[in-house]
Amino acid sequence: MDANNNKRDINQINEEENQRWVPFKERKLQKFKKLKADNNENELVKDEQVQPQQSIVEAVEGEVVKKTLFDEKLEILRNKHRLRRAGITEEQQEQQEKQLQKQLQAQQDGIELPLDDESSDDEKTKMSKEEKEILKSLSTFVPLVSVKDRAKSIVYTEPLKTTWTAPSYIRSRTDQENEKIRRQYFIDASGDNIPPPIPTFKEMKIPYPIIGQLEKKGIKKPTPVQIQGLPVILSGRDMIGIAFTGSGKTLVFTLPMVLFAVEEEKKMPIIRGEGPFGLILCPSRELAKQTHELVEELSTALENYDSHRYPRVRSLLAIGGIDMRDQEESFRRGIHMIVATPGRLLDLLRKKKINLSLCKYLGLDEADRLIDSTFEEDIREILSFFDGQKQTLLFSATMPKKIQDFARSALVSPIEVNVGRAGAANLDVIQEVEFVKPEAKIVYLLECLQKTPPPVLIFCENKKDVDDIYEYLLLKSIEVVSIHGDKTQQEREHAVKSFKNQEKDVLVATDVASKGLDFPDIQHVINFDMPKEIENYIHRIGRTGRRGKTGVATTFINKNNSESVLLDLKYLLIESKQRVPNVLLEIPDDNQYLLKLQNRAGDETDLNKPCEYCDGRGHRLINCPKLKKQSNQNKSNFSSSRMGGGGGDW
C-alpha cells in the first residue's frame, strides 16, 4: 500500500517537474494565447482606429505588415489604454470595423470604393509633402560650372555674340508671325528674345557647298528642330534641344561648329599646339564616330568647293580603342574641332596633349546619359579646363531632373526648343508589346524576324544574351553581327559598318548602340529584353522610324520585369496611341490610386503628371526606381569610401 502511494507521489513530482521545465518560448506563447483569448474582439483594433481614415487607405492599398507575437502583444496593451483615454464607445468601434471590413471585401472583389473627402485630402497632402521634400533634397547639388569661375564668383548673364544675323525680312517679322510658324511645325520654344524660326537652309545663310552636300544625303529641307535650333545656335545662344529620336538633332550642333571653326581660322589661323575651337561630347564610341564622320563631310565639302574662301579645318576623333601615338601629328599641327567620349578626352587633358583655352563651343549629345551618374564626375573635371564663357548646347530625347539642374547652373539665358514632349516616343514607330516566357524568347525571336524585311536591330540587356543570340542566328544561317562593351574597337567598327552598308541583315547589341546611332533603313527593332529604365526604351525604338519613315518596334516582356518600368511603358503606349496589352492594363499604379484618392476619375491632370526625376509616366516621384537606385548607389559609394575602398576603371 505504501509502495503504491510512494509511486503516485513520484509520478506527481515528475509531472510537476515536466511542467516546470517547459521551454521559455513555449511558456510565453501559452501566456500570449491566454491573454489574447481574454480580450474582447472589439478591443483588437489597430492604431488607425484613432486615425480611421489612414487605416482605410492602408486597407485599400492591401498593405500587409508582418508582425511578431511580441509586437501584437504590445499593440493590444497599447490599444486598451488608448481607447480608454480617447473615450471611444463600443458603437463607434463597431462602425469603424464594419467600414474597414467593407473596404477589404471590396478590394477582394475588385471593386474600388471612393474614400471620404477627409481621408483623400490627408493622403494627397502627405504625398505632396513627401514629393516636395524629395525635390528639395535633390536641389542641393554642386553646379556644373568651371572651378575657376566658381572660385572667383563669376556669373555670366549675357549670351555670347556672333557675326551671324537672319535676313532683314525675317528679323522684321512680328512675334505673332513667328509663333504661327512654330505652331505649323509643332515647335515649342521658350526663353528670352527667341531668334525667329527659318524654314529653309538658304534663308539661314548656310554656304552653298554644305547645302549641296546635304542634298546628296537626301536632306532637302530642315526638320522642325533644325528650323528653330539652327538660328538659335548661329545667334550664339545656349540651347536645350528636346526632340524625338531621328529628328535631325545631330546636324543642329555639328553644322554651326564647322562654320564657327572656319570663321575663326579665317580671322586668325591656328598654330602648333592650339585648339580646339569647338568640342562635342558623346556617351559612346559608335555615336562619337558617327558624329565625327558628319563633321568631316561638312568641312571637306567646304574645302573642296573653294579652299581659298573656306580654309581647311581639322577635326579629331578622341575615343577609346584608338592609339594616341597615331594622333601625335594632329596634336602638333593644332586642332579646330574635337568629337570625343568623356574618358579619352579627360586622359588627353590630363596629359596636356590638348587644352581648352580657346574653346568657346561645347555640345553634349545624348545629354541625359552624359550628365547621369556614369559620367558626371568626368564632365565636372572637363569643365574645369575651360577658360571664360562658352556656348553650351544640350541635346536629348528625354528631359530628366539632372538635365534641368545642369541647365539651370551651367547655361546662360538658354533657349529651350522642344519638338514633342520630352521623353515621348517617336510617333512614326509602331510599338508592339508581347508577353513571352523567358525560356521561349529565343525561339519566338525567329518568328519576329519575319515581320519585316532586313535590316533588323535586336537589343539585349547583357552581353551573354548578345553572344547567345548571335550564335543561335548563325546556326540558322542568318547574316548577323554583334557589338557590346567587351568587343574590341576594330570588331565594333566592322560590325556597325557592315550593318550600315547592308552587308549583314541583323545586328545584335547592348544599349551601346541604342543612343544616337543613325541607321536610316532599319524597319524593325526588337527588344529581346525590356530595359530597366524607360529612357533606354525610348532611345532603342528610336533607331527605326527615322527621317519620316515608318518603323516597327517589338518588345518582349515577362514576369521578370519590374512593375515600375512596365507602368512607364503602359503610359508611354497610351500617350502614343498604341495598343496596350491586357497584361499591362491589369497592373495597378500610383496614378490610378491618386485618382481614387481624389474621387474624380474624369480629371486626367494628375494622370498626365510625370515623375519629376526621370520623367516616367507610370509612377510618382516618391516611388521613382531610378531615384532609389541612385540613392542606393550613393550610399554604397559613401560606405566604400569610409572603408578605404574606391577607384575603378574610367
Automatic annotation (TrEMBL):
Q: Where is the composition biased (Low complexity)?
A: 630-641
- Every Helicase C-terminal domain range: 428-588
* Region Disordered: start-end pairs: 89-127, 626-650
In chain numbering, motif Q motif lies across 199-227
Instruction: Return the EC number.
Output: 3.6.4.13
List the keywords (alphabetical). Answer: ATP-binding, Helicase, Hydrolase, Metal-binding, Nucleotide-binding, RNA-binding, Zinc, Zinc-finger
GO MF terms, alphabetically ordered: ATP binding; hydrolase activity; RNA binding; RNA helicase activity; zinc ion binding
What are the annotated GO cellular component locations?
cytoplasm; nucleus
> What InterPro entries does the annotation carry?
DEAD/DEAH_box_helicase_dom, DEADc_DDX41, Helicase_ATP-bd, Helicase_C-like, P-loop_NTPase, RNA_helicase_DEAD_Q_motif
Domain DEAD-box RNA helicase Q residue range list:
199-227
Catalysis performed (reactions) = ATP + H2O = ADP + phosphate + H(+)
Helicase ATP-binding domain ranges (all copies): 230-417
> Biological process (GO) annotations?
mRNA splicing, via spliceosome
**Family as reported in the entry's similarity comment:** Belongs to the DEAD box helicase family. DDX41 subfamily.
What protein does this entry describe? Answer: RNA helicase
Q: Which organism is it from?
A: Tieghemostelium lacteum
